[in-house]
Amino acid sequence: MTNELVDFTLVSVALLGIGIYGLAVKRNFIRMLFAVEIIINAANLNLVAFGRFLPHSGGQTLALFSIAIAAAEVAVGLSLIIVAYRMYQNVDIADFRSLKG
Amino acid sequence: MLEITSTPLVLIAILGTVGIILPIISVVRKEKGSNSFYAVIAFAALIASMAYVGYEFLNNNVASSALFSEDVLVNDAFGGFFAIAMLIVALFTTVGSFNYMRKQNSPAVYYSLILLATIGMVLVAYSTDLVMLFVAWELMSIPTYILVGFMKKNPTSNEAALKYFLFGALSSAIIVYGISISYGLTGSTNIGEVIEGYSTLDPSLLPLGLLSVGLFIAGFGFKMGLVPFHQWLPDTYEGAPSPVTALLAAATKKAGFAASIRIIILGMVVLNLDWTLALGIIAVMTMTVGNVAAIMQKNLSRMLAYSSIAHAGYILIGLAVAPHSSLGLQGSLYQIFNHAVMKGAAFIAIAGIVTTLAVTHIDKLAGLGRKMPITALGMIISLFALAGVPPLSGFWSKLMLFGSALDASSALWWAPWLAIAGVLNSALSLAYYGWITRKMYFEGETEKRVKEPKSIVAVMIFSIIFLVGFGVYPEPLIQFVEFATPALSVGTMP
After folding, report:
1. Average of per-residue pLDDT across A24-41
2. Contact A51, A59 (CB under 8 A)
3. Residue A58 in domain
4. C-alpha Rg value of chain B to the nearest Å
5. How far is CA B33 from CA B91, B102, B104, B108, B181, in A?
6. Given this model, what pLDDT does residue A100 score?
7. Is B153 helix (H, G, I), strand (E, B) or coil?
8. Distance separating alpha carbons of residues B250 and B254, to the nearest angstrom
9. What's the DSSP call for residue B408?
10. Residue A101: inside a domain
11. What are the residue ranges in chain B where pLDDT is below 50?
């Protein structure tokens, strides 16, 4: 296993693909949330990998910010899911369809 | 370095302090249900920020639009312009919530979230660094997820919040991915250096540069409601509390445009321009889909949600032709400002209708012109301004936008078609605005007048004065827009 930049970017692209697949196929809200998180982490991996090959630490800084913000975002998302679960006893987004037209 | 008295820092200080103190006060007072107390504090904070932005402008402490800076924030006219537009909308939302949110629990948290979201939007417009832009973007988004789902007992509000959250989280993930690629290509997160890095990009890396701009378009496009990314928008606007919808439609959408002007348009200019056609196509699709879908709606919020999609399309015309016509960005900024007031007023009018009559179905609006004369008048004025009927303010901005498309026709053969599509779409939109007008004024029995909430009336009167006043005498607003428009020439490169 080499330690080149391209390896990291390939992993990152693979993660991006997994995330998009998850969003497109899954209908469980928590799984879709995971899929989004995987995309964010793919981007973080990219940032850290690029930052490693550059003379300054901008990429790592942004990755830290992004991790912290993603945590806040997930907290909000999960709280919304809890409210929804109390109402529907379910986290399947196919069941949330009172709004349409 | 930014001075400590520069506008963005003072705005953070005022709004942030009040936004954090509000929940603390509510914990200390241990008293529930005093909605108006917190609303007044939030209102005062917003007015103070607005006064400070205005004061800085009047004292000429604001640099003309810089677009680039070595700092993470820049105190320029472009940011100030958006700050004023967003503060107006935040004021609308605060005032409009006076009556609307009266029966909800925890009012302190509600107003504090509005203030925090406002800081985020304002900072998006001021930021010149991708890290700052991303943090501000999230500071804008995360409070609005909660605000949309604020009515916890209401299934539609919750469903709207879930959909909004999912698409919003996806959009920020896409933005981080775009940032990561542009960072990898140019080795910097400062927007000026990124743009400079793009202009000297190795040709073999050009596809990656285009990919990052594409990711930015997708990420910001979710918030702006551009057409392939608009599915969440009608649901969210319909389900959310109406004052919050005003905040979403009139302010967060504009933050998306501010960010895309700072990044995408400049990136396009440097990466050379095959993107203008793509943006033009998105613009035409967005307005057509928005208007055609709006005609078929029966729910007032949902109809205005689709019309707000259509308006994103009009604004995009200016961005698409921006590299070839100096009028393009001016028209966009003008339309952004007008749209903030018009859409804000329209959704606050809906909030008033919902509070007093509890209806949003269009058939039930019959006779509203007699039941709630001022609300109905404000609604009609903003709807006709949205359609671009002279002599209202919306007419001049549309004129400038379509004029910019014609202006660019010497460089882009397809640009006049944008203007034609825009005019046809405006005519189409008159159909459903006219339908609402007919329902309100020419149908129904002779209903008695009901009491209108005073706060809603205040918003209506302000927006009627704004739209008619700047429609009859648009000169000051146009000068302001010209001052705020960044010059898009190679000379502005760092």
Report:
1. 91
2. yes
3. yes
4. 21
5. 21, 7, 8, 10, 49
6. 65
7. coil
8. 7
9. G
10. no
11. 490-494
A12: domain CATH number is 1.10.287.3510
Q: What is the pLDDT of residue B493?
A: 43
Identify whether the C-beta of residue B264 lies closer than 8 Å to the C-beta of residue B179: no
Tell me, yes or no, whether A96 lies in a domain: no
Q: Please, which residues bridge with residue B127 across strands?
A: B73
Is this model's pTM higher than 0.80 or not?
yes
Q: Average model confidence (pLDDT) for chain B?
A: 88
**For A20, which residue in chain B has the nearest alpha carbon?**
B170
Distances in Å between the Cα of B494 and the Cα atoms of B24, B67, B203 are 45, 10, 21
Q: Which residues of B, range 285-314, sit inside 8 Å of A by Cβ?
A: 296-299, 302
Q: Which of B74, B270, B493, B185 is nearest to A59 (CA)?
A: B185
In this structure, chain B runs to a length of 494
The alpha carbons of chain A give a radius of gyration, in whole angstroms, of 17
Tell me if A30 is assigned to some domain: yes
**Interatomic CA distance for residues B455 and B351, integer angstroms:** 11
| Nearest beta carbon to residue B183 from set A29, A32, A50 | A50
Query: How many domains would you assign to chain A?
Result: 1
B247-260 exposure pattern, b = at least 16 Cβ within 10 A, e = fewer: bbbbbbbbbbbbbb
pLDDT tens digits, B387-445: 988 889 999 999 999 999 998 888 888 888 999 999 999 999 998 998 888 888 888 77
Three-class SS of residue A28?
strand
Are the beta carbons of B298 and A54 separated by less than 8 Å?
no
Residue B363, Cβ neighbours under 10 Å: how many?
Answer: 9
Distance from the first to the final alpha carbon of chain B:
17
Helix (H) or strand (E) holding B357: helix B326-357
Chains A–B, number of C-beta pairs less than 8 Å apart: 126
Residue matched to tokens 């202009």:
B199
